[in-house]
Design brief:
The protein is of the alpha/beta class and 493 residues long. The chain folds into 2 domains: 238 residues, Rossmann fold (3-Layer(aba) Sandwich), CATH 3.40.50; 209 residues, 3-Layer(aba) Sandwich (Rossmann fold). Helix content is 42%, strand content 21%. It is built from 16 helices and 18 strands. Strands 5-6-4-1-7-8-9-12-11-10 form a 10-stranded mixed beta sheet, with helices on both faces. The chain has a 6-stranded parallel beta sheet with strand order 15-14-13-16-17-18, sandwiched between helices. A two-stranded antiparallel ribbon has the order 2-3. Helix 9 packs across helix 12. The longest helix has 21 residues. 48% of the residues are buried. It binds GDP-alpha-D-glucose. The site of GDP-alpha-D-glucose has 24 residues, from helix 1, strand 13, helix 12 and helix 13.
């Protein structure tokens, strides 16, 4: 096969030359009333990011299928070979809801919520990581490129390398990597660092995260490091670098340009009474996303008479998320109450200042919402990147609209022309909302043009090809046995 030949479709049982390992498969299952099973693409940052890369390159995706205690055979869906990994109900509780989402998630997000440490959760994390590594070791062909995704699978690189030293292994962390002081709280900090060091390339959203990692390896594991490289005693080296993730910008713009999207955006505004200002938030319902602070800021502006309730509406879409984890249940109740209180306090008949939607929508509806919004409000307390901010920018081909963006979202490093805020500073957030609402079209257009250039030039293909190019490039001439310097999968971008 010549280097530029795309990888061909393989039967699910064949060995793959490109393997993605992620906690979830990129599909959800629908079971019809007659019992027929259908898989459909699921929403979420990771899927949104990797699906185009997988489809263009062929390859296998290893992940959990979403149900407890069920073994499903590998299958092919929509251009991708899918290899389901089973989890027991106890593993879902301990590995997924527990260690991943109630230990690592809050710890890696600045301890915005209190991380819980339980030894039985850790044991399940180890066992499940091992299962993923074993599945990947079976699915990957000789010298294959394997890309491990995210915080649920940080032990997989080391486990997989032990099983299959021929593989080229990359790891990408979608969420922030914490400062050394916070990471130090983790009773299993050394095992996690060693797990990640099984990869040839460890990618982060921001350079600061890569630096945190290298510093921690030096401090806690004692390996030699120089800038972005860790030198292992066995002669191997591991590179730690930033690869800010992005979106399929052209695809979002095409969706936004459809006449149906324009019509739907107008309909949304009409149904809200055609207010002067439509503000929009779209987030998974997660305590890292800063929903409370944002809604309070908006509510106060109305209560203080700085915004007229007839002039502005805030649409908040909160996509249901991790509903079996306690902290998420508590958050949902809190937000329900807060929205009720604000609407009750400052609303009028026929004029609810906050339209709150606890639901998931098709991408076409998301694009219409982006088109309908004058001000997009993205104010997480901590966020690895935040794709919603980039999607808004991609959809604003009219160069209009304003983005209010937290300085604690990874995206703020690239979207410098946004109205940047510290989300903990409610008064500062209020000022930024007012500034964004009152800016001239000319001012917003200047900012939007610059942000659109950034997003269009650094899209998802750019992210994936940068990471994969680095991963498959031989840095050490003594390791040339691995494979030709470029494999076909990177040529397609
Ligand atoms: C993690 C990191 C990082 C949301 N609601 C619906 C829907 N979405 C889509 C959005 C966007 C994605 O989900 C959310 O991505 P974010 O980046 O905003 O946030 P996380 O889910 O927390 O993602 C994050 C990301 O991984 C990628 O590395 O940026 O920092 O936390 O694409 O559009 N999509 C549809 N319906 C919805 O209701 N169709």
């Amino acid at each position: 096969m010549s280097p530029s030949t795309p990888v061909r479709r393989r039967a699910a049982s064949r060995k793959a030359s490109f393997v993605v390992i992620a906690n979830r498969l990129p599909v959800d299952r629908d079971i019809g009333p007659d019992g027929t099973v259908q898989w459909r693409k699921s929403p979420g940052g990771l899927v949104t990011a990797l699906e185009p890369v997988m489809r263009r390159n062929g390859g296998a995706w290893i992940g959990w299928h979403g149900a407890a205690d069920e073994k499903i055979a590998p299958f092919h869906h929509d251009g991708i070979d899918l290899v389901p990994v089973h989890l027991t109900a106890a593993e879902i509780k301990n590995y997924y809801e527990g260690f991943s989402n109630a230990t690592l998630w809050p710890l890696y997000h600045d301890v915005v919520a209190h991380p819980e440490f339980h030894r039985e959760w850790w044991d399940a994390y180890v066992a499940v990581n091992k299962r993923f590594a074993e599945r990947a070791a079976k699915a990957a062909g000789r010298d294959a490129v394997v890309w491990v995704q995210d915080y649920q699978l940080q032990l997989v690189p080391k486990m997989l390398r032990e099983l299959r030293p021929d593989l080229r292994i990359g790891f990408f962390l979608h969420i922030p990597f914490p400062p050394t002081e916070l990471f130090g709280q983790l009773p299993w900090r050394r095992q996690i660092l060693e797990g990640l060091l099984g990869a040839d390339l460890v990618g982060f959203q921001l350079p600061g995260a890569a630096q945190n990692f290298v510093r921690l390896v030096r401090q806690r594991v004692g390996y030699k490091t120089h800038r972005d490289t860790v030198y292992l005693p066995d002669g191997r080296s591991v590179l730690a670098k930033a690869y800010p993730i992005s979106i399929d910008a052209a695809d979002f713009e095409a969706l936004a340009r459809r006449p149906e999207t324009t019509a739907r955006a107008e309909e949304i505004r009409r149904s809200l009474g055609n207010p002067q200002h439509v503000l929009l938030g779209i987030d998974r319902l997660d305590y890292t996303k800063g929903l409370r602070q944002r809604l309070r800021a908006f509510g106060e502006l109305i209560a203080e008479g700085k915004i007229d309730v007839d002039d502005a509406v805030f649409i908040q879409v909160a996509t249901p998320s991790r509903e079996r984890v306690d902290q998420y249940r508590i958050l949902r109740d809190d937000i329900d109450r807060l929205v009720g209180r604000i609407n009750g306090d400052v609303g009028r008949i026929g004029q609810q200042p906050i339209t709150y939607l606890h639901a998931s929508y098709p991408r076409s509806e998301m694009a219409a919402l982006y088109r309908a919004a004058d001000v997009m409000v993205v104010t997480p307390l901590r966020d690895g990147m935040n794709l919603v901010a980039k999607e808004y920018v991609a959809c604003r081909y009219d160069n209009l609209g304003a983005l209010v963006l937290s300085e604690f979202a990874g995206a703020s490093a690239e979207l410098k022309q946004a109205y940047q805020v510290n989300p903990y500073d409610i008064n500062g957030t209020k000022a930024a909302l007012l500034q964004a609402m009152s800016a001239s079209d000319q001012e917003n257009s200047r900012r939007m043009k610059a942000m659109r250039k950034q997003v269009n030039e650094n899209d998802i293909d750019h992210w994936a090809s940068n990471f994969l190019d680095e991963l498959i490039t031989d840095r050490d001439p003594h390791e040339m046995r691995l494979r030709p310097v470029k494999t076909p999968l990177a040529r397609d971008f």
